[in-house]
Each structure stands twice: as C-alpha cells, then as structure tokens.
Amino acid sequence: MAGVSRIAIVAGHGGSNRGTRVLGRDESNWVLDYARLLHRRCEAMWRDPLFQLTRDGDYDLGLDGTAKKAADFGAQLAIVLHVNAYSTSALHGGAAFALDGDACGRSCGNEVMHSYPWELAPMRELAWYVPSDAHDWRKAVANVLRPYARRGISATLIELFYATHPYDVAVAACEGVIDRTQLAVMAGLATVLWPARTASVVA
Ligand SMILES: [Zn+2]
Predict the structure, then answer these.
(1) Could you tell me where the beta strands, DSSP code E, fall in 13-153?
(2) How far is the CA of 141 from the centre of ligand 1 (A)?
(3) Domain boundaries, the chain
(4) Ligand 1 centre and the CA of 82: distance in Å?
(5) How many angstroms is it from 134 CA to the middle of ligand 1?
(6) pTM for this one?
(7) Which of 12, 24, 32, 190 lies 20 to 30 A from 58 at CA?
(8) Residue 44 C-alpha to ligand 1 middle, in angstroms?
(9) Which secondary-structure segment (H or E) carries 189?
(10) Residues within 5 Å of ion ligand 1, judged at the Cβ atom
C-alpha cells in the first residue's frame, strides 16, 4: 500500500438532503462545520498531502457527484463524515466502514476506531468491512462507498456517533469530545500517509 498524497474530506448530505437531526441542527450543516474544522486542522498539521472539502456550503452533489469531485481533485482516499441514526436507542458510539478489499480505507478506519474517545467507544473495535454487493443493513453503506471504488479511490465512512442515543448526544455536547474524534480521524489518516511507519497498527 503506497502512501496517499491527496485526501478528500466529505461532509455527508447537503441542500434538500438534510440527514438526521444532530444536537438541534440538521446533520448536513453539523457535519459541514465538522468537516471544515477537520480540513483546517489537517492543513495545519500536514502541508503535504493536500486536502479538499468536496462541498464547502449547503448544497448536495449527490453520491456520484461527490465521488466525481474527489476524483477530479486527484484524491486517493475519501473520508466520508456522517452522524448515525437508528429507530431505537439500542445502538451507540462511533463506527467506521470500508469496502472489502480496500486496504487503505480499512487501515484508516481501524485506526480511527482504535484512537476514538472512550466516551463514544465504538461497539466494534475495528472498522466494518462491507461487501460491495451487500443486501443486508450494510447495503446503504456500500451505496455510499461504491462510487469511490468505481473511480479507484479508497474510502472510509465514519459515523461519528448516534444522534438517536441520549448518552452519545450528551457526550457529543461536552466540550472537547468532538475535538478528540477529530484527533482520532487524523490518527487514521496518519496510517495511510506513512503506511510503512504504522504497519504494526494495520495488522
Ligand atoms: Zn448521514
């Protein structure tokens, strides 16, 4: 696995596609602010590689249009950011996903989960590996990731927490916790920026 040099940061939803409700706001706007902050932090931390937000405003490019934007930028990896929702409060914590066979997306996702704040501890310690033809609950995840794979771009989907879980929501509102999820995402990026140096984390 070669180190990547261009990374697309993808805020989910946008425009009329609002997503779920997150701390009293639309998910589309919440993750946009999150993505903007992550983008600034990545640029401050690493001059090279280059990072790009696939959207920097309240509009919807669609799944395929977003992947095309990442491809036009020359991204080798896309970090796709969402907040999860479920019909009950049974599910909680962060989750990362990559398509089966996507070593780069998987390495990044594993390390994000490994580094995640304990308050939002993932229910699964590693990233989920999703078959691209999944027919179960992972189908929606595969639909998000496939447009990148079709263009030869690795992708990690990160569901930052559950907006439908009261504990997750209370924790996410605490000062500093969301900042620490950003550090976890950056730790995931580090594994693909310098794969040789972080190979032990990937195994
Ligand atoms: Zn979402």
Answers:
(1) 21-22, 25-26, 50-53, 77-84, 95-99, 128-130
(2) 10
(3) 6-193
(4) 4
(5) 19
(6) 0.94
(7) 190
(8) 27
(9) helix 177-193
(10) 12, 19, 82
